[in-house]
Design brief:
The chain is mainly beta. Helix content is 7%, strand content 45%. It has 2 helices and 14 strands. The strands form 3 sheets. Strands 2-1-7-8-9-6-3 form a 7-stranded antiparallel β-sheet. Strands 10, 11, 12, 13 and 14 form a 5-stranded mixed β-sheet that branches. The chain has a two-stranded antiparallel sheet with strand order 4-5.
Length: 220
């Protein structure tokens, strides 16, 4: 099957004349480190600083009855991208490098550099839905991380008053709400927002890092 990509839900196959000639290999992002050498001590001290964003190159081409304006518009974007060699994964991306569209028209080939964030999300995993009708709201969420690295989940709920969040029976956060509202706990951004998109971090007690899920947590 010919390679393809999906940008913000739109398949490259729907762009007349656009070909995806090759996709980047599946790779692991590099870990940023800080290395310190101490006089009188053998070796060095390495501090890990998290995973780096990185570039993924896609070779594109043209065929037949193409419209270069449609191709330009397709790649003039940022957001989410799926590569057909990883159809079950979604990358957050932006395109910062210039695309040589003149070369694309003349020689029918060009390179597009996707700058992607290190964590990729599941494109097929369904949300976990739980309901707790009690007045003392306890939100208990079972999570099993089937990836190969720790996970930073997005938790969405509607509640009022004091909400205690448990993951796999372990207390993680407490949220004190004024009235009933929708809440989004974004572990990647380390923020909590209400239905209007307003930050409510001051109403959250606890450390967002406690919501990071190790690999292979079993459901209870």
């Amino acid at each position: 099957m010919r390679p393809y990509i999906v940008i913000n839900g739109k398949y490259s196959k729907t762009i007349n004349g656009l070909l995806i000639q090759s996709l980047p290999p599946i790779s692991k992002p590099a870990i940023r480190t800080e290395i310190e050498e101490i006089d009188g001590r053998d070796g060095d001290v390495v501090t890990t600083l998290g995973y780096s964003a990185y570039d993924r190159a896609v070779l594109i081409g043209l065929k037949g009855d193409f419209n270069i304006d449609d191709v330009i518009e397709y790649f003039n974007s940022s957001g989410e991208v799926v590569f057909s060699n990883e159809p079950d994964k979604v990358y957050k991306f932006a395109i910062y490098e210039q695309i040589d569209f003149e070369r694309l028209v003349r020689f029918r080939t060009a390179e597009v550099i996707f700058h992607v964030q290190p964590f990729k999300n599941s494109a097929i995993e369904l949300p976990i839905v739980r309901s707790n009708p009690t007045s003392a709201t306890i939100l208990k969420i079972p999570i099993r991380n089937i990836g190969n690295i720790y996970s930073k989940p997005m938790i969405k709920f509607r509640a009022s008053g004091e909400v205690n969040i448990y993951i796999n029976e372990v207390h993680k956060l407490e949220v004190d709400l004024d009235g009933t509202t929708d809440v989004v706990i974004d572990v990647v951004g380390m923020n909590a927002t209400d239905a209007g998109g307003n930050y409510i971090n001051r109403q959250v007690t606890g450390d967002y890092n406690k919501l990071i899920i190790p690999v292979g947590i079993n459901e209870f």
